[in-house]
Predict the 3D structure of the following.
Amino acid sequence: MNIDLTADLTVIWALIIVVAVFVYVVLDGFDLGIGILFRTFAVGHDRDTAMNSIAPVWDGNETWLVLGGGGLLAAFPLAYGLIFSALYAPIIAMLLALVFRGVAFEFRWRDPAHRGFWDLAFTGGSLLAALSQGVVLGALLQGVAISDRAYAGGWWDWLTPFSLITGVSVAIAYALLGATWLVMKAEGALQQQARTMAGWLGAATLAAIVAVSLATLFLSADYFSNWLHWPNLLWVAPVPVLVAISSVAFWRSLKARQELAPFLLTLGVFLLCFVGLGISVFPYVIPGAVTIWAAATDHSSQVFMLWGTGLVLPMILGYTAWSYWVFRGKVQADGYHA
C-alpha cells in the first residue's frame, strides 16, 4: 500500500497545533479564570492567595499560545493569512488584553498605592482575553468568506450572535477552571468560596456547552451530518454521554468536598469539547472552505520544522512539568507553597 508521506506529515502538524492550543486553553484558562473572578475575592489575603496560586506558572503557560500561533504560520501559512485577515480585530483585542493583564499582574505588587486599579485591570484584561478567544472560535465555526485564496468578507463579519455566545461560553468555562484550581490550591474561606462558585459555574458551563453544540449543528449541513447522520451517530455518541457522566461526577466530587477531582473532571470536559470540535471540523482548518492539506506548506518545510519541534517540544514539556511539580501543594498569601 502506498502512503502519501506529505499527507501524513500534514496530519501530524495539525495534531501538534491542536495539542498546543488545547494545552494553552487548559493552562492559561485557569489563570484567566482566576482573573475573571478576581474582583469577587476579599481584598487582602484572599486576593493575594489567588494571585500567588498562579504566579509561578502563568507566564510559562502562554508558551503554548506562541507554539500554536507560530506552528499555524509555519505549517499552514494560507490558513494563518486567512484567519488573521478575517479575525484581525478580536485577535488583536486578545493580544492587547493579555499584555495588559500581564502588566497589571506585575504592577499590583510594585505599585501598592494603585493596587485597586491594577486589580481592576487584571480582571478586565482576563475577561477581554477570554471573550476574544471565544469570539474567534465562534467566528471560525460559522465560516470565513474566501475568494481566490484571499479573505473576501468585511471588517465586522466575525461579530454575530453565535460568536458572542461562544465568547461568553468560553469566559464562563475559564471561570470554572479558575474556581476549581482554587479549590485545589487554596484553604479556608477562599477555598469554600471557590467551591460554591464552582457549583454554579459548572451548571452554567454545561448549559453553555449544550447551547453552543445545538447552535453549531445548524450552522452547516456538514456539522449536522458529522453528528447526526447514520452511521456517524454511532461513533460520536460517546462524546455527549461522557460529558454527561463527567458532569455528574463533577458535582459529586464537589459535594464530597474533594479537592483535586473537580479540577481534573473539568479538564476532562474541556478535552471532550475539543474532541467534539475536531469531529465537527475535520479535515478543514477553515470550516467548509480550506482543508489542512490545501493550507499546508511544502513537504520539505514540514520535515525541517518537525525536526526542530522534536528538539524543542520535550524541553517545553519538561519545563512545564517541573514548574508545576515544584510549586505543587497549597499556596499561602505570602507566596509560600505548603
Summary: The longest helix spans residues 5-37.
